[in-house]
Amino acid sequence: MVFKEGGTHMLNAYNLTDGRTMYVETTGSLGGPGADIFFFELNEGDVYLDGTVHRIYTFW
Fold first, then answer.
1. HSE-up of 43 (CA within 13 Å, CB side)?
2. CA distances (Å), origin 6, targets 3, 38, 59
3. pLDDT of 55
4. Which residues pair with 32 in a beta bridge?
5. Contact assessment for residue 48 and residue 57, using Cβ atoms and an 8 Å cutoff
6. By the 8 A CB rule, do 22 and 9 touch?
């Protein structure tokens, strides 16, 4: 994804059987080292981390 404020971030994405996309955050932990996993829907215009999602690119 690309942030409006600049910068990028990568998530794993999965198509769900109900037509939604699930994004999985595996690049770090809010509590320190390690990998916490977060499941959520993400759309352009949403605030994520410290930025606003500008573009979401999906590569399969």
1. 2
2. 5, 23, 20
3. 92
4. 29
5. no
6. no
Its pTM stands at: 0.68
Place of tokens 């910068």: 7
Measuring CA to CA, how many Å separate 49 from each of 7, 14, 18? 11, 20, 27
Of 60, 17, 20, give the one whose Cα is nearest residue 41. 20
Local confidence band at 2 (pLDDT 50, 70, 90 cut-offs): very high
Question: Measured between alpha carbons, how far is 60 from 45 in angstroms, rounded to an integer?
Answer: 23
Distance CA 4, CA 28 (A): 22
